[in-house]
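Hello,

Following up on my earlier ticket. Below are the two sequence lines again, exactly as submitted.
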Amino acid sequence: MTRPWAWRKDGISLVWLLVVGSCTACGSVGGGPPPAWEQPPPSVRELPVVPEQALTRAELSNGLQILILEDHRLPRVTLGLDVWRGEASVETERAGLAVFTAELMRRGAGDRNAIELAEAVDRIGADLGAGAGWDSLGVLVSGLSRDLDTLFEILADVVLRPRFDPAELERLRAETLASLESARDDPGTLAGWYTADAVYGAHRFGQPKSGTPESVAGFERREVRDLHASFLIPNAAVFFATGNVNREEILERVEKAFADWKPGALPPEGVAPPALAPPTRRVVIVDKPDLGQARIVVAHEGISRTDPDRIPAAMLNDVLGGSGFSSRLMETLRAEAGLTYTASSHFSLRRQPGPFVVSTFTRVPETRRALDLVLEGLENARVNPPSESELDRARTLSVGSFAMGLETSDAVMDSLVNLELYGLPDDSLETYRDRVRAVSVDDTSRMALRLLHPQRAAIVLVGPADQLLPQVKGLGPVEVVQP
Amino acid sequence: MASSRTRSFASAIITLWVSTLGAHALDDPAERTRVTRLDNGLTLLTLEDPASPVVSFQIWVRVGSRDESRITGLAHLFEHMMFKGSAHIEPEEHAQLVQSRGGRLNAYTNRDVTVYFEDITAETLPLVIDLEAERFANLDVSERTLTSEREVVLEERRLRTEDQPGGRGIEALMALTFQAHPYRWPVIGWRSDIENTSVDDCREFFARYYVPNNLVISIAGGFDEDLAIERIRQRFGALKRVAPVPRNPTTEPPQDGERRAQVHFDVQGARLYAAWHAPPTGHPDSDALDVLSVILSGGRSSRLYRSLVYESQRARFAHGSYWNLKDAGVFYAVAGARPGGSIDELEALFMGEIARLRVELVSEAELEKAKRQIEVSMIQGLRTSHALASRIASETVMLGKIRPLDERLESLRAVGSEDVRRVAARYLQDEKRSVVHVVKAPQGEEE
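Thanks for your patience. The regenerated structure is below:
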């Protein structure tokens, strides 16, 4: 749609004019200046990423990186510690061990057992979380700044002194197995699991991040302790603090809590996934006879977090399916065809290339129509890559949403920690807007050809197999699985 | 037009924060809200915070599923139609224009209100005001757009309700708990109603409820308050007041016995849903019910987590919460059994915890812990422009005023263990509960 324009559309009934009669007389949008949509977008005021003097970077002699972002607007604080290894570095047979270890770390640490630790957290109204992603494992605690000492003590205990109590381990194992089994009730989770498998097969990325019933059943306390000892090392970690704190009080406490932490050798990144994944088209139908709506996923290999093309790739993705109502897929599948509530695409950015995934859903009888629109949308993006106006919209979207991301110091810190994690330049946030503006239509055209491969993508459908099977004729080899 | 600022209790708040949060005086930004009323009855709340890079613009329409009469789901379906174009804006163009400038926008409908919001940078505020005024003045509901959007809503219904055990459970629970009041039907509506909603239904709904005297506009964040108010006067000032806005008169009669229902669904672990009638928003017992909710479900040291998830290992999750609506309140409980676990045993444990609250006094430590958790979450809720704009609009719509944090804190601090026992005994009686089990169909039986 191009701007400016302002005309009434035809076909408004008399009844309608009567119903809203009072408004049709009041001009396009009441009195005042011409409507803003007729004006070119104003440029966004470029605020500094962090206020001057608010950010402190430091390093302990054992290699622990320190980031402190002062924000005195509210009497609260967030403390965290992330290490540079996660599930990608875990062997396939031990899938989920990093997630499991992180959760077990918060179930009893230092002088407190699981319940005592939970009590200590809740008593001061704090939040404690521990978890692992593909590339990192971390602990986060937040609460009131007046409780800084307690929050520090809890963080240091969980990071350095988890108890890994055998009874807690068994309790967590039972819980994990129950939630893996119950997750089969959720069509979206099933779609995610089987897509990973269809794209990556035996590679670690082919298994769910939190593991499988088989891998979880085999976890041993020794393995948990070993993972903790090898992944949690100060020379591959960052401590961070945001909120109503000052640098001196934080540095002093970090020194006290973490200076004796011994450095170690960083475990390997994990095996690289296959360059072409999957090598050829395959269709997987996950049989869920009770569903009235089929989940539809089209996926193949994507790019890594540090790929030099990640910004033009993100722009391409915004145009295709990454920008909500502004994206081509939403326009086609939702606005025009009324086939779905949402359709989206994304690159899962990891240290090693994660998948590129397009997902949507529709009523079962319309599955093929929706799937064809997705595949055509991908093919079409190769032939008709983003136009200058589409790209321009993607650029303003990225610059505008970047500005929005600066609202809370926790969100800014997330980005800073992410840069540390992937070894990206410290000034990446400062240069981001210029790098976005520099992307050209040639860049995104190149990205479409390099990164979109509908012909050999994995297609995963979740729904009643007896109704889906007849709809996938001619798409490639089909496999029906029982979840 | 009238303009005023609420600045009450400014000194009291400092004292209170000192006692509860330590020596850090915190001012409640909501107290700086400027309230402007246009001649046509539109209420405008503005809260300027120059330090914030984000502006949240929200329009709260005082209409929800409780206002539907002949067709359920109309308030929600209509919310979708607000994105389908107007005299000068094409279908979806409103959303595209805002998103292409990095803005986040969406809308939601619940039982009491319909809310449209745009979270943007200040530069985009004039555009958002103009786009919102345009659709409130010149909305275009056509057969073509309604036909496709009806399908979108049916997909949303499949996604959230029909194919989800949780959605099915809550839908059945509300239909069981309320037998007369419109809270009984789902916000998204019954399928057959969505399928049969007409263009005329939508237009009639718009003319009746989308009128200036039924709107609250709330803006918070880094923007120029005077410029925004002036532009809103220009753009929304010509909308004509329509009075009175009709409301359903039905009140829910007292429940005089336990109600039970079963939903058959292919679940790995059975699920328990239960509800009790509780007072509406703004009732003096609200704070005690909030404290009771946190004692049951706040964090991993809470009673339900410890008893059902941790110690007995019967449940995968268990929560109980007070849900305060405009016309009535509900205390609801949700728990999921582990695969293969007995739903009856899970229910017995859950109800045992409820019974304990009716009989035993909670300890002073437990009470203080719950209050602290609520207080800290109140502070966390001051972090974003979106949360602030939501809070001042919600309180204006639901309570008729912005409730200063100090007032809330004061009444929270006054809750004693006897209050918790009293509200448990008064509202959470076995013979006044409604219970739904979501379980697999017995073998050999088709759904």
